[in-house]
Amino acid sequence: MSNARSQTSHETALSDADLLARLVAFDSTSRNSNLPIADFLCDYLDLPGVRVLRNPSPAGDKVNLIFVVEPAAGPAAGPTWAEGGSAGGTAAGERRPGLVLCGHMDVVPAEEKEWESDPFTLTDRGDRWVGRGACDMKGFLALAANLAREGGGRPLAHPLALVFTYDEEVGTLGARRLVDSCPEARALPSSMVIGEPTGLRVVRAHKGHMTMRITLHGRSAHSGYPHLGVNAIEPAGEVIVALGRLRRELAAAGAPHAEMFPEVPFVPLNIGRVQGGAAINVVPDRCTVELGLRALPGVDSRQLAARVEQAARAAAAPFTPDCEVIADSPPLLVAEDAPVLRRLCSLAGQRESATVSFATDAGWLQGLGMDCILYGPGSIDAAHRPNEFVPKADLATARDVLERAVAACCQSPAG
After folding, report:
1. Residue ranges of the chain that CATH labels 3.30.70.360
2. Phi, psi (rounded to 5 degrees) for 55
3. Is 168 a catalytic residue?
4. Would you call 106 a catalytic residue per the annotation?
């Protein structure tokens, strides 16, 4: 962890829209290193009173970022984050005042032919900003970074922190890395707002997403002499049929908290990709089946993986398929009386919290002892699509709500 910054930032303050344009210009597609956008954000928040911690990926080509605007010195200020971090966090269940704003820096690819403008150039379309990541979720990143800059110039009673992760789009890998390898993160405030595009709704629960790969092994041969080979695609077909039966069983069985997800009140199973064979005249020696399952809160993903493996092995016999979990993003469920949930609902004028069926970093980050909720500008319907956009009005509304949340959580001595 670096010390608090003492020099003038390398980057001058930008408007929310200008900062969003700078962020969109970085091609931070998950397959690329995110170091360029991370380095820019570190320069932009290189301010007195702002501490930064870089949490690198195992290979060093990706990085999670933590920024903390420390409370002003004085009798109302509690222990600094640095003091809490050096102590290895706080006691289990202990509330840590302040607020964390969280988002991911990576985006999905932008290779669709339907793009009407350069996806990595923010484009003004009147009532909206268009660009890859404008909605999911660089619009929120711009708001959070500017609120941190502004917070650095105000007297705070409790910390305001930012957590920016890598590789959320390919399995919440950065968030899991942060939980597993960054003990300082356990000293951050207990209340976290993750800025996924929720259409300005406050969300308290979401499903998880576990992805699996089943691999069937055979032996290649010329198709004119099939007795010399073993076809791996044929048993894969049996596995696919068995997974179809399992999908129907899961849909019929329901799940805990099903009432919170009325559109899909069960664990959906989706066979998303099948790959096998090199040529039509070659007996295929390998076939893979990849699938995803979206567990509701209270459903054990390990048990789901075991059911998939059991079904695949029974269907493929006498073949013995390899079954592996590629990624596992846990579900989220925040208590109805969580302070951050009540506060955000009040500030947003929302009587009841909402749920969504996509997974987020919150599934892992709640393991830091945090109450995580989702709230952000833009709609998930616009994300991951050509001409992705965020409405300008959503950005303005989200800024107002987040400004008041920072004031309530960080500027009030009571937290």
Report:
1. 209-329
2. -115, 95
3. yes
4. yes
